[in-house]
Amino acid sequence: MNEDNLWWLKEDGYEARLHKHYEGLFTQGNGYMHVRGSFEEGCSDAPQDEEYLRFPDNVTLEKPRHPKSKQGTFIPGIVAQHPLLKEEIVNLPYMLGLEFRSGDEALDMDRCRISGYSRRLDLRDGRLHRSFLWETKEGMQLKCTYSRYLSMADTHLCIQQVQLEVLAGEGRLEVKAALRADVRTNGMNHFARVVPSAEPGDCISLETLTEEGNRIFMLSALEASEAVNWQAGHTPVMAALRGECRLNTGDRLTVSKLTAVTTDRDMEEGTVRDRALAQLSRARKLGREQLYNRHADCWKRKWQAADIRIKGDDAAQLSVRASIYHLIRSNREEDDRVAICAKGYAGEAYFGRYFWDTEINLLPFFLHTHPQAARNLLLFRYNTLDGARRNAQKYGYRGARYAWESSISGEEQCANWQYADHEIHITADIVYALYHYVRATGDDEFLERYAVDILVETARYWCDRVDWNREGEGELLSVMGPDEYLPFTRNNAFTNRMVKFSLEQTVACLDSLEDGKRDSYAAAAARLDIRPGERERFRHTAEKLRLPYDSRSDIVPQSDDFDSYAEVDFASVWTDRSRPFGHFISQERNYRSKALKQADVLELMMLFPQEFTRAQLKASYAYYEPITTHDSSLSAAVHGIVASWLGQKEAAGAFLQRVMDIDLSAEKKGAAEGIHIANCGGLWQLIVYGFAGLKSAMWSESIELEPRLPEGWEKLSFTLAWRGERYQITVNPDTYEVQKLNGGNLVAGTTV
Amino acid sequence: MNEDNLWWLKEDGYEARLHKHYEGLFTQGNGYMHVRGSFEEGCSDAPQDEEYLRFPDNVTLEKPRHPKSKQGTFIPGIVAQHPLLKEEIVNLPYMLGLEFRSGDEALDMDRCRISGYSRRLDLRDGRLHRSFLWETKEGMQLKCTYSRYLSMADTHLCIQQVQLEVLAGEGRLEVKAALRADVRTNGMNHFARVVPSAEPGDCISLETLTEEGNRIFMLSALEASEAVNWQAGHTPVMAALRGECRLNTGDRLTVSKLTAVTTDRDMEEGTVRDRALAQLSRARKLGREQLYNRHADCWKRKWQAADIRIKGDDAAQLSVRASIYHLIRSNREEDDRVAICAKGYAGEAYFGRYFWDTEINLLPFFLHTHPQAARNLLLFRYNTLDGARRNAQKYGYRGARYAWESSISGEEQCANWQYADHEIHITADIVYALYHYVRATGDDEFLERYAVDILVETARYWCDRVDWNREGEGELLSVMGPDEYLPFTRNNAFTNRMVKFSLEQTVACLDSLEDGKRDSYAAAAARLDIRPGERERFRHTAEKLRLPYDSRSDIVPQSDDFDSYAEVDFASVWTDRSRPFGHFISQERNYRSKALKQADVLELMMLFPQEFTRAQLKASYAYYEPITTHDSSLSAAVHGIVASWLGQKEAAGAFLQRVMDIDLSAEKKGAAEGIHIANCGGLWQLIVYGFAGLKSAMWSESIELEPRLPEGWEKLSFTLAWRGERYQITVNPDTYEVQKLNGGNLVAGTTV
Fold this sequence. Notes:
The structure is a homodimer.
Chain A: E1 8-12, H1 16-25, E2 28-29, E3 34-35, E4 73-74, E5 79-82, E6 86-89, E7 98-102, E8 105-106, E9 113-122, E10 127-135, E11 141-150, E12 157-168, E13 171-180, E14 191-199, E15 203-210, E16 215-224, E17 231-232, E18 238-247, E19 252-263, H2 272-306, E20 308-311, H3 314-330, H4 357-369, H5 371-383, H6 385-394, H7 417-422, H8 425-441, H9 444-465, E21 467-468, E22 474-475, H10 493-516, H11 518-527, H12 534-544, H13 570-573, H14 587-590, H15 601-607, H16 614-624, H17 635-645, H18 649-664, H19 677-691, E23 715-722, E24 725-731, E25 735-740, E26 745-750
Antiparallel strand pairs in A: 1-9, 2-3, 3-4, 5-6, 7-8, 7-13, 9-10, 10-11, 11-12, 12-19, 13-18, 14-15, 15-16, 16-19, 17-18, 20-23, 21-22, 23-24, 24-25, 25-26
């Protein structure tokens, strides 16, 4: 097989019904900005400025609008208020506009005579290529080739090029390059003012002021290989240059568009306009080739640290690379004011908000490929601690309570109260992640400098949130665990264990600071106004918090009241397994039934593997898997890992397929509304924790592997950052090897 | 005390902050239409056409808009769709407009020099009177006297009169009479088209077409005692006549406005316009005096059947008359396409929808004062059975499920799913009410003709809704009982008992029809497609449905899981008892705490008194009352009844005061958003079931009393319709008397 095929996401032949899926899948980005894989010329019958009121709804079941195409341009941190849905990331003006016209025929993938259509997203460098043959009504045969990328090195820049080669015929061709603000976010217009302008030297600009007061400046320079005589053609919501030229057989017209994007939220000094001008001028000085080389070098370094190589399973190879590509792209390096939103900045769904996905699903990838990025993701939580304090206060509690759906300031944005009020484990998940980071990196200073504030403030919240029963046990009542199909359970095993861990670590952290770093302790005590007896309260609550399971029962109950829920006859209810279970049952019935949305007890066992016996793991998997609907994209990877640990290769392989399909399956239009970025992290975990059997850094000082490769996998290799060093891991069906990079072999063992 | 004071609701002196309360309290109506007690001239700084998007929210806690004044004109059945709140009764154009102006000074209660302001709502005939002295800037002293009523005999007519007497000074006075469509319902404009017109003979009309296609025609005839030279002064949303005249000291100007209102939903034939013209012409022929006499006669007959007389407690006397007034007014006689909405058509709150209030809180009053009205209320449920079928289907169940908040077609309108999905007892409450009606009236034919359809269809729903536990018991999981502060309980005692009753009666009804009325049975079986074995399924479910209590426990648990909820330290949470408890606790905490919104177990005991021992009643009252917040207006009356049954006179008296305050307390602005019509029915029940100790017709063939009059009550008397006869009940502190009307004494006993 051609090596390229292991790096290319491909679309061969255009199908309108799949277009929105590819728009999501082909999302390009560089951390600073992201743009969906839409066509430069847009799409017929798919207006982007339709205004409507979107209502809070069940995301699994909601039928999204815009069936054919939704463009998307996102800059993390640029958000606005929706009257019903609360804070949402703003879909910014569309910067990619490049339209062609032959006579009265506008180039359009649906309406023109197009053949040989093909698109490739090259995962190595994030460039998107399109090519096709256009036979115009006027009789020209035009070979059209597009490419574009957002520079990973110069993150304010978008570089586009189109080449039209006349294979036969001749005629005039019109070109229009545009920056368009006729864009709505979930049906809302968030633009308070739009100013399109012509700029010197075949340039156009579009300055946009959002309702929230953010300023976005887009500046495009146009170049053409033929004289096209650019003329401004603005509208109130669009900056545009139009031009035309005459082409004969054999001619080639190349149009380049170089766009600089700046906002008032950038960390650089200066006006948005000045900075965009400077970016553009610098880029032009560098020239196309150098610009590309800088960009490609960045991607190369990222792939060196992050690539996973699989021999013997090309589908898995390509799929894991697609996941890693989106993980790398979604992460804003060195900006700790944002994290990675649930759809990986590849769609309007989930409104650009931050969930527990970051800590539990994404963090391990970054911990072991790019620890600095992991640190920044956690600093986002530190930076939004005040928002978490306001959340706690709003509910009448002391301390800090992280939002189920976090705004960029940390405040709760979830419009459905059953999640916002009851899915409280997020607050403990963040503490788990802080420890995971510290243990995987050895960055102990992070604990005393940042984490301790989160620990103490969240411990205060938990102490207020706990109720006490007659036996003197602390309880967490009315809780939604990871399984979102049971919103009001009593003592959810996952949640209570995570909270207990969180409180235990708070006490341990304060104990150890007081013992070993008295200055640090004194500073924290003063900063956080730690009162006498508070630590004892944390300790008591940690000790007495009830766990609804013990070593005597093999099946760990999901919650104290789990047994009281109704059994579901899946065969009679879920009559079409190709669609989510949620489509076949009312929420009312769902909420009282033993039908899980996703892994809950198994998620717990994955995070605390050392606390459960193999019998418990096996019995719980056997019990829960058949009653789990996997309606959440977070479920399959966890199940795959557990199946792999249990040596159930067939099941693990089936879950691997499921994980791969979540975004990649065109038939299921998996990526239409954005990338399931948590599942991307899940695939990485399935391979590293599941198949390579890496023992989590939470529970192991050194790299320990217990590999179980899927059938057919001849070799699996990847690099791993671990406590300040990098290692090369190579797993063969019968042996494995851990090699320190820039050093010799450390460990070599045999697969189990 | 002047006898009038026992019939007049009074407002002495105008206070802007109380105005909205009096608007609600002084609502006038005749079943066909209702109008809030707003001023003819409107109110400064209180625009009625403000547009905004009202969101679904917690009604107890929501801060209503329009702090100063909200006019309201409602015709039951004229509804429209709100994009977020679903179906709402439309606030129709304001027909009362009569404005006066002296020079550039518009008459306004806030801005003019007003003295001696007084309003009286005469409960005997529903007329509203206003009088005050207006000293104009130009130096006139005008004694102003207003009166108005909606005719109870000619229900399409509104009759208004204003008299201005010049006590001193002289000058010109301008009059404007208007029909205004600048009205919004909860911020929404539901009017698709408004056509204001001048009509022959000093008349104006306003035809309004709603979004839903309903047509409302208002036609007003103006008359003045002085020549005022009426001139049309329409705007696109207002029909108006303006005129002016010169007045000297001693002059009296009388302006009369007679308005006919028709809609396309009326049961009469003909266009709305023709019918309004006919109404008006007939009214003018009858003349003012005859019009009034016809109206007053109607009210007189209603009071003869419904009045309760209390000697020794004038406050209670006036209060119960206010309640009865609103009950009579709210009821649309002989129109079984509507029922009585939760705010008694006296405000926009609750959107004009129908709740369980109708069956449980209002029905007893109508059963025993106006049985035909009770029958019509139940026929509304029969007529909306198809809506209930659609509700069941929507959830995936067979049969019929009544809506928690019913539209006029029976479909669920509640925008908050925790109520809509989980407060299922309404479906059984309706069956309880059907039986209550049949037992109180002896109208057995109603059962086989109408009720059987509801019985069978709701039984089918219950059989699908029940889950089965390992012990073979039927369970109702995830249920909100009457106590709306616990939405997800297991086997709520009230709900399960009501459902068991409902299923038992379904089986009994089918058994008895098959035994005694084979034709009726065959017709029902065919109509309802009753399958073999279905009745056995009903019987089995009725038998096996679990009740979470038995005779061994004195405290009846509210639900199987009630004990697992958290205790609340009320003293530390509820720091200001003058405001609802709900203001002091988050919904999240509330939903897991033992803090009841309202009577739940006690409601059960009130409806099934014969099934509980006195020890259970006493212990349950002692346990639940202290943890009940009474945040619902349905709670106090039930508690008062139980306290009275237990001989706890002081507590019963305190609940009586609470019940009275709910609408009447100006300080609490009780009636601002409308009348708590269920509490009006509750007051009637507190007096009849509580103080007179009437044994419910559900459980007694004949009238049985066990009176316990409150301290100070010297005499209580009322009439009672009972199984086709009417009785006069007289209760003295030590004796009581039951006298058949148009007949001799039947029973005379001694109070216990």
